[in-house]
Amino acid sequence: MKTDVLHAVRLARIDLTLVGRNTTVLFNVMLMPILIAALYSTFPVGETAGVSGEVFVLTGVPGLMLAFAVFINLVNAFTSRREELVLKRLRGGQPSAAAVMAGSGLSALVLFLFQVVLLGIWVYRFEGILPANVPMMVLAAALGVAVFGLIAAAFSGMTPNAEMAQITVLPVLLVMMVAAPVAFPADVLPGPLAVVTGLLPVTPIVEMMRTGFLGADHFTSGGEKLSMVGQWVAALPSIGILLVWIVIGGLLARWLFRWEPRHG
Amino acid sequence: MISHMSTPQLADATGTGLAGPENVIEVGALRQKYGDFEAVRGISFAVPRGEVFALLGTNGAGKTTTMEVLEGYTPATDGTVRVLGLDPIRQHRELRPRVGIMLQEGGFLGDLTVAETVDLWKGLSQDAGRPVTLSGSTELPGGFTLMGTRIRRVDRVTMGALELVGLEKKARVKVKQLSGGQKRRLDLALAVLSGPEVLFLDEPTTGMDPEARRTTWKVVEGLRDAGTTVLLTTHYLEEAERLADRLAIMHEGRIHTHGTVDEVVATSGDMITFRLPGTSWTFGDLPALDGVTPVLTYAGGGTEVGYTLTGSDTGTRAHAALRPLLAWADAHGETLGRLAVRRGTLEDVFMRIVGEV
Ligand SMILES: Nc1ncnc2c1ncn2[C@@H]1O[C@H](COP(=O)(O)OP(=O)(O)OP(=O)(O)O)[C@@H](O)[C@H]1O
Ligand SMILES: [Mg+2]
């Protein structure tokens, strides 16, 4: 166990070094989400859930960052490393399968948190709002990376090569961009749609992030201020949904993930 | 150069009824299928501690497949395999730190430099409780920035690994810029880094120049002398002759012959060849040697005569056969032109196996 943790940290550091050396990845992971944040924040007018439309959107942007910094990044990384036999080599070396996966997850978490910090600086600079509940944001990030890391592992198993990854990620990407309650709260959607959206993993992550940023209840469209305890209590259903998704993602990954290129 | 760590007592966790734990590698009636195709069709062999065992064979014979079952990549379709008395799949976690693997091909992170790659492997090994004990003659300074790139220090341990395989001048080159043979060298360095008790080398010297090949042989011999057990595959017969204590020749999923190099070569027989003038000879004119009649080929106005001696006394059969042959020549007043006695070679055995199946 201790060895696994040491291995994961070591592999995560190497991952981050490599991200720094690969311009395409660097762009996809770092700039793309920022551009999207800038784009989204120009749409809204008026008020949503007790805050300005702009603040509402910006505090929901981590849901989109998750799609790029974590999901797409990891599908690409898993797929290309499998095809280049890097995964095979790593598995034949000292680290365990769990450590290899955890290493990739850890580096994705670092990138994701870095983006959230950038976003926090932006929100503070232009809106004067400081994050209210940082631990909740970190937990949201960690759970989000776990869920989408596992889903990415499963999707990479269905992706024959790195070029195809651009296509296989699309369904998930589209669902995330449409369903994530970035521009408006999930519960303003008509009944069944709201239920479905609420059960998708991106929704609880966005809601926890926004609640953490603003210290108010953004699990519903009410947006009323909550005490620290109140925020955590309100977050429990979301945490529950994410834990269920971790199990689902884990099963999918176990079923679909491939360590080696398929033959024939 | 490689200081080997003390090898702990082998766990006898097999309970398979196969040979005892003094066999570091045990393969019993292994079968391996890919869908309907049976790549390995029931092979058995054992490698005792400190031995170098070579798997030779045709392309597609099933060598890599066998190695990958032993390395724990795939479960055996049927049969048993044990490495250090452990099941490569179920006891992977226990086994992993004690095993070194050199795959048939690649799998490097191309954007890392050679030194960074070794550093990563070294770190992973350290984390697993197997510190690397190699020590090079120099270290490369670092900690400064050159043309926008951060230059890291390369320590003696890493340099030691690179010197072992002659890559010390490439420490700061990106792995993707290495030539094929240089990648193989790096691969070897990584496989032996943690002082493994068992080493799997799948075609270690393919693509290496003659010098690198010799270096590799020295590395393997050094490890063997330190007690490492080595299973290697190769297409170079002289490599097997030089390195292997024992070898097996595989073809289409089966082992066709195995034993020490001498034992295997002995099955191919010694050759006695000479030339007689004229083309009127038939094999009835010539003596049987060691119970063998010759093969005659007529060429260039003469007759080429060849005996293949397969008698049981491999050490003396050629000598014993020459005596009656020379007596026959004297009696008939013939001169045996270009008389040659040649031991059988591994290649003869190999070609016979491939040819007869
Ligand atoms: N994943 C796979 N799926 C289907 N067939 C496979 C797979 N891997 C190997 N094979 C087949 O199994 C047979 C044995 O392959 P293997 O790689 O073990 O041969 P080898 O002895 O290592 O050959 P070489 O000397 O060329 O490396 C080959 O016929 C190969 O086509
Ligand atoms: Mg092979």
TrEMBL record, chain A:
It comes from the Bacteria. Pfam families: ABC2_membrane_3. The chain crosses the membrane at residues 25-43, 55-78, 99-124, 136-155, 167-184, 232-257. Its main location: membrane. GO terms for molecular function: ABC-type transporter activity. It is a multi-pass membrane protein. Keywords: Membrane, Transmembrane, Transmembrane helix. It is found in: Membrane. One of its GO terms (cellular component) is membrane. Residues 63-253 form the ABC-2 type transporter transmembrane domain. InterPro entries: ABC2_TM (IPR013525), Nod_factor_ABC_transporter (IPR051784). This is ABC-2 type transport system permease protein. It comes from Planomonospora venezuelensis.
